[in-house]
Specification:
Layout: H1 3-14, H2 18-24, H3 29-37, H4 44-53, H5 63-84
Helix pairs in contact: 2-3
C-alpha cells in the first residue's frame, strides 16, 4: 500500500478531516492534501507523525506477515464492536434438547 492510500484510509477511519489531521500532526492541510493525492511523498518521520495523529501506527512487516496483520486488525475491530454493543442476559441460555 502506498503512502497516499495508507494516509487516506487512516484519516477516514479516524473520522478526521484533512484540516483536523493536519492540526493534530502539526502540519498544514495543503501538505496532507498533497500527500493524499500522491503529488508529494512524505518522509518516514512525517508519515509516522500523520498516522499517529490519526490514531494508528506505521509497522514494517515481511510480506508473509502482512495477511496475519490484516486479520488481527479485523479481529480487533470486531472485538471492539462487540464491546460497544449493549449486553443483557436474562436467565440461562435457552436451546433445544438434542435427542440422545
Amino acid at each position: 500500500m502506498d503512502a497516499a492510500a495508507l494516509l487516506v484510509r487512516a484519516r477516514t477511519r479516524a473520522g478526521l478531516s484533512q484540516r483536523a489531521l493536519a492540526e493534530a500532526a502539526r502540519t498544514s492541510q495543503s501538505a496532507v492534501a498533497a500527500i493524499e493525492s500522491g503529488r508529494k511523498q512524505p518522509t518516514v518521520a512525517t508519515l509516522e507523525r500523520l498516522l499517529q495523529a490519526a490514531g494508528t501506527e506505521l509497522v514494517a512487516a515481511a510480506p508473509e506477515h502482512a495477511a496475519m496483520l490484516r486479520r488481527s486488525r479485523r479481529l480487533l475491530d470486531v472485538l471492539q464492536l462487540a464491546e460497544a454493543l449493549p449486553f443483557r442476559r436474562e436467565g440461562g441460555l435457552r436451546f433445544p434438547r438434542v435427542p440422545a
